[in-house]
């Protein structure tokens, strides 16, 4: 496959069975998690935490939490996209401290922005924080899904799991986190029936409208 993102997006598909003999190298995982971390997020606050699971016993448990979907059991790794359920003033302070350290910015210049951000989040109720953070999770998810395709790594985007079960399995609640999306990744099995199917998409004229 040549390194063209459009070709990669044609090549990828929601993989239902992975080759359990072919595991992803750590260098490959490192590149994927870097792409995750580079995703743009609202205010740059990165309210998404990624768990990278390759423990096969844990994968078995996650499979049960996903109604037995085979891709979770057979994948090389499972990426679990989790959101922060609280954005505290301390968390916002950390963000500004990082900016000051990395960019050597004068803290006085940032002060009004810092105060404004703390106020915005103090006015959000719990559901508003979760909705906002969930939007950021979907954004990182889309970015990682495309990056995997670009890297020739197969993946299955997944909402089909019970988040309460996944939260319990990974002990997320006590870390003020909630699972939102799963992305099993690895290499497609040659027996995956779905790999030979054509892509089903609307014709472009039905999904895009030009206003000139
Ligand atoms: C957010 C999201 C959630 C999905 N959840 C599941 C899932 O739980 N199980 C599954 O087999 N496929 C799931 N899919 C895969 C879609 O069915 C698939 O992406 C879509 O039919 C388009 O096919 P393609 O990805 O092979 O091009 C999900 C896709 C997205 C984007």
Short description:
This protein is α+β, with helices and mostly antiparallel strands and 212 residues long. 48% of the residues lie in helices and 12% in strands.
Q: What do you see in this structure?
A:
The protein is an alpha+beta fold and 212 residues long. The chain has one domain: NADH Oxidase (3-Layer(aba) Sandwich), CATH 3.40.109. Helices cover 48% and strands 12% of the residues. The protein contains 9 helices and 4 strands. It has helices spanning 5-11, 26-38, 56-64, 70-74, 89-103, 107-122, 126-150, 163-170, 204-207; strands at 48-53, 77-84, 154-155, 177-186. A 4-stranded antiparallel beta sheet has the order 1-2-4-3, with helices on both faces. Helix 2 packs across helix 7 (126-150) and helix 5 packs antiparallel against helix 6 (107-122). It is globular, with a radius of gyration of 19 Å. The model has no long low-confidence stretch (mean pLDDT 97). The structure holds flavin mononucleotide.
Order of helices and strands: HHEHHEHHHEHEH
User: What is the count of distinct domains?
Assistant: 1
Say which CATH homologous superfamily is assigned.
NADH Oxidase
Q: How far is the first residue's CA from the last residue's CA?
A: 36 Å
CATH structural architecture: 3-Layer(aba) Sandwich
Q: Per the principal axes of the C-alpha atoms, what is the gross shape? A: globular
Rg result: 19 Å
Helical residue percent band:
40-55%
Structure annotation, total helices: 9
pLDDT averaged over residues: 97
Strand order of the largest sheet: 1-2-4-3
Based on helices, strands and strand pairing, what is the structural class?
Answer: alpha+beta
- How much strand content do the residues show? 5-15%
């Amino acid at each position: 496959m040549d390194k063209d993102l459009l070709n990669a997006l044609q090549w990828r598909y929601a993989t239902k069975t992975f080759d359990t003999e072919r595991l992803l190298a750590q260098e490959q995982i490192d590149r994927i998690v870097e792409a995750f971390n580079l995703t743009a997020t609202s205010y740059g606050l990165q309210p998404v935490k990624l768990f990278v699971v390759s423990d096969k016993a844990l994968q078995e448990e996650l499979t049960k939490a996903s109604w037995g979907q085979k891709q979770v059991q057979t994948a090389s790794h499972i990426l679990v996209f989790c959101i922060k359920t609280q954005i505290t003033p301390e968390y916002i302070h950390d963000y500004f401290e990082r900016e000051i350290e990395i960019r050597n910015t004068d803290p006085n210049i940032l002060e009004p922005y810092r105060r404004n951000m703390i106020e915005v989040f103090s006015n959000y109720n719990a559901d508003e924080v979760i909705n906002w953070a969930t939007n950021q999770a979907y954004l990182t998810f889309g970015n990682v899904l495309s990056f995997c395709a670009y890297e020739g790594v197969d993946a299955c985007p997944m909402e089909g799991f019970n988040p309460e079960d996944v939260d319990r399995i990974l002990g997320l609640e006590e870390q003020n986190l909630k699972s939102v999306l799963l992305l099993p990744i690895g290499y497609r099995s040659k027996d995956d029936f779905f790999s030979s199917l054509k892509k089903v998409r609307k014709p472009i004229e039905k999904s895009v409208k030009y206003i000139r």
